[in-house]
């Protein structure tokens, strides 16, 4: 019987640029809770951003935030990965040298910017809608750093080899959406975040399902028995998941109808 269902957001639960959750998803999450199935929002987004997105059910779900660097359940932090400051500052110096690359530094509840353009500052505040702190000097972040992101408007895929070569041996480096590349402490990924929750809740792989579409979802899909690639998922994600669906809601509806039991 299923006890936990985790889903990526952008490109998976939210497709085609949609920025808000449907009433159907919110109702399904409520029904899953009544059945004893925990829904997990697994995303590169920050915790406070996810809380706002899931506002009607924000107290009823768990969060694997910042691509696994932060895990929160019932308002408590179960796990947090942090960078050594020296490595984080080396990354910041490298990003600042790249003309078209914007950087975002993640703390627990806010992100820090030293924007190169006013357009990027407005994008982060008004479109991404993160809790945002603008600093005159990004090296003065006043808390532990859990993630450093590179925003490349022309596409993160093209820049990924450079950043993986530069820091891939010392950090987890993944593309996260079309324009974003995320770097987390070496042990941080969505799979590790899900392992933290499974251990805390005493669940096995057979109790868990997950949905994803991009490279940052691969480790999470390996942690469950029932994995799904959604929408325009990468080939590697489809192969790892072993199953494909058009929408997360389609599978959730079947799970609810089947009383939480799994029938292919």
UniProtKB/TrEMBL annotation:
Coiled coil: none annotated. The keyword Hydrolase applies. InterPro entries: Cof, HAD-like_sf, HAD-SF_hydro_IIB, HAD_sf. The keyword Hydrolase applies. GO terms for molecular function: hydrolase activity. Keywords: Hydrolase. It comes from the Bacteria. This is HAD family hydrolase. It comes from Blautia hansenii.
């Amino acid at each position: 019987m299923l006890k936990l269902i985790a889903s990526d957001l952008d490109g998976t639960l939210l497709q085609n640029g949609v920025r808000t959750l449907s009433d159907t998803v919110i109702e399904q999450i409520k029904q899953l809770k009544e059945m004893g199935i925990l829904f997990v929002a697994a995303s590169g987004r920050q915790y406070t951003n996810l809380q706002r997105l899931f506002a009607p059910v924000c107290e009823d779900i768990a969060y694997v935030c910042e691509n696994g660097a932060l895990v929160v359940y019932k308002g408590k932090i179960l796990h947090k990965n942090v960078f050594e400051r020296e490595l984080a500052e080396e990354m910041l110096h490298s990003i600042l040298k790249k003309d078209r690359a914007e950087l975002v530094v993640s703390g627990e509840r806010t992100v820090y910017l030293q924007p190169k353009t006013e357009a990027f500052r407005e994008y982060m505040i008004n479109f991404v809608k993160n809790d945002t702190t603008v600093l005159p000097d990004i090296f003065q972040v006043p808390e532990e750093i859990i993630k450093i992101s590179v925003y490349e408007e022309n596409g993160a895929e093209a820049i990924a080899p450079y950043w993986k070569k530069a820091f891939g041996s010392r950090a987890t480096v993944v593309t996260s959406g079309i324009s974003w590349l995320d770097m987390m402490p070496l042990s941080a990924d969505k799979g590790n975040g899900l392992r933290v929750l499974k251990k805390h809740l005493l669940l096995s792989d057979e109790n868990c399902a997950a949905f994803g579409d991009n490279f940052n979802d691969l480790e999470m899909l390996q942690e469950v028995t029932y994995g799904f690639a959604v929408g325009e998922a990468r080939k590697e994600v489809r192969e790892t998941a072993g199953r494909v669906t058009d929408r997360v809601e389609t599978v959730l509806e079947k799970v609810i109808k089947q009383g939480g039991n799994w029938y292919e």
